[in-house]
């Protein structure tokens, strides 16, 4: 949604500037956690409930976080609540991580595997993919048994699909064409 991206951009940029001046890695973890909590349906219902004061929404949201929240993060959350933007935190987090990756010359790699991969297999796969893409990759591994076998890797807008399901689909298209 372009409108949500437009709304989230200034918040993400401001948060990134604050994080860069402090500990970017710690802030990255906190921003991810805040996005997960804000995406929860109960939190979204709370944020849109007119009977609850902004202070109560902020304190409840902060209490839902596992990571301790400093003064800057509390001010950020308070500002989001005051401006009715708490539910846009997942998009803010996505843009924040895109800014972080751009600064580090890295990218997120979404790896979907048909079977559970060991740490050694993930490390080997990431090393190969980093050579192919020419940058550091931050992997996220998910198991999807519908792939039947193989892996599917998404880095930015590039997709490498070596799964059995994809090969079967290619064969189906070739045979029906």
Describe the protein:
The protein has 177 residues and is of the alpha+beta class. It is 62% helix and 14% strand. It has 8 helices and 4 strands. The longest helix has 20 residues, at 2-21. The relative contact order is 0.12. The model has no long low-confidence stretch (mean pLDDT 93).
Strand percentage: 5-15%
Structural class by sheet pairing and helices? alpha+beta
Order the strands across the largest sheet as they lie in space. 2-1-3-4
Chain-averaged pLDDT: 93
Helix content: 55-70%
Low-confidence stretches: none
Largest sheet: 4 strands, mixed
Task: Tell me the radius of gyration.
Answer: 20 Å
Would you spell out the secondary-structure blueprint of this structure?
Blueprint: H1 2-21, H2 24-39, H3 41-47, H4 54-64, H5 71-82, H6 89-104, E1 106-113, H7 119-133, E2 136-143, E3 151-155, E4 158-161, H8 164-176
Parallel strand pairs: 1-2
Antiparallel strand pairs: 1-3, 3-4
Helix pairs in contact: 1-2, 1-6, 2-6, 4-5
Which key features would you list for this structure?
single chain, 177 residues, alpha+beta, 62% helix
Question: Can you summarize this structure?
Answer:
It contains 8 helices and 4 strands. It is α+β, with helices and mostly antiparallel strands and 177 residues long.
């Amino acid at each position: 949604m372009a409108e949500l991206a437009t709304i989230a951009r200034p918040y993400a940029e401001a948060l990134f500037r604050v994080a860069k001046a402090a500990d970017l890695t710690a802030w990255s973890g906190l921003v991810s956690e805040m996005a997960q909590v804000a995406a929860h349906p109960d939190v979204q219902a709370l944020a849109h409930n007119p009977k609850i004061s902004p202070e109560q929404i902020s304190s409840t949201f902060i209490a839902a976080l596992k990571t301790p929240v400093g003064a800057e993060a509390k001010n950020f959350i308070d500002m989001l609540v005051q401006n009715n933007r708490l539910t846009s935190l997942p998009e803010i987090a996505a843009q924040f991580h895109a800014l972080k990756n751009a600064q580090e010359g890295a990218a997120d790699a979404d790896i979907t595997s048909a079977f559970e991969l060991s740490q050694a297999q993930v490390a080997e796969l990431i090393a190969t993919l980093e050579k192919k893409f020419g940058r550091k990759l931050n992997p996220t591994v998910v198991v999807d048994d519908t792939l039947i076998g193989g892996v599917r890797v998404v880095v930015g807008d590039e997709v490498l699909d070596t799964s059995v399901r994809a090969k079967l689909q290619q064969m189906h298209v070739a045979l029906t064409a």
